[in-house]
Design a protein that fits this description.
Elements (H helix, E strand, L loop, with lengths): L10 H13 L4 H16 L1 H18 L4 H16 L1
Length: 83
């Protein structure tokens, strides 16, 4: 479902944005929607955490760390805390 919003911006900014969007084969609506999605993604804490876990996972994978290695490390730490 889509809805409309009304925003007020400087007419020169709108004209320039229209031209740039057109050069990219996009509508101004597409550009504004992309900007809003990017804004939300950058400020949404759950998205930030997901991206952080993805980066950590890639780095661990690149270093050859497996899920079994992580499970073993967790088990060792839990065992040490019990002692």
């Amino acid at each position: 479902m889509q809805t409309q919003i009304v925003i007020k911006i400087d007419s020169k900014l709108k004209d320039t944005a229209d031209k740039v969007a057109s050069m990219e084969g996009k509508s101004l609506n597409d550009v504004i929607e992309d900007l809003l999605k990017e804004y939300i993604t950058k400020r949404n804490i759950s998205t930030y955490i997901d991206e952080l876990w993805n980066r950590i996972s890639r780095q661990l994978r690149d270093k050859g760390v497996t899920e079994a290695d992580i499970d073993t490390a967790i088990a060792e730490v839990r065992q040490e805390k019990r002692q």
